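Hi support team,

I submitted a single chain yesterday and got back a structure, but I'm not sure I'm reading the token output correctly. Could someone confirm the output below corresponds to the sequence I sent? I've pasted both exactly as they appear in my results page.

Thanks,
R.
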Amino acid sequence: MSLQPYLDADDAELAVRWSSLEQWLTARFGKTPDIESILFLIGIQARGRGFEPELEKDAKQSLIMEGTYHAFAALGIYERIGMEADGHWIWERVIDHPPDLSVEAQEKLLKIAILQYFEESLDVTEADEK
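Hi R., thanks for writing in. Yes, this is the structure output for that exact sequence:
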């Protein structure tokens, strides 16, 4: 599988979908999150223990990375292959990406992955209609 179809996705459509997700998250959390905050939320969700307000910086960074892996797993880029003794998932990249992706292309791919994660995990559209 190639990442090219994701990179070729329509920017205007992506902007609409991203705005919808931001609105949905803002309604739930009271402020508009940035990408890092969204990845942190995904990491918390994936960990399954809920929010812990006194986390150290390293633990927060670990949750952001966990969120990144989970988001990319929604696109089939990464998959879990096991668990370390400390309870952290072990991930393996399934699809290589070109090493020369621009920052804009990397952000686009990450946004698409986040949207896919939320669309698979939550019915954002249905929640908006209530």
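A quick pointer for reading it: DSSP finds six helices and two strands in the chain. Let us know if anything else looks off.

Best,
Support desk
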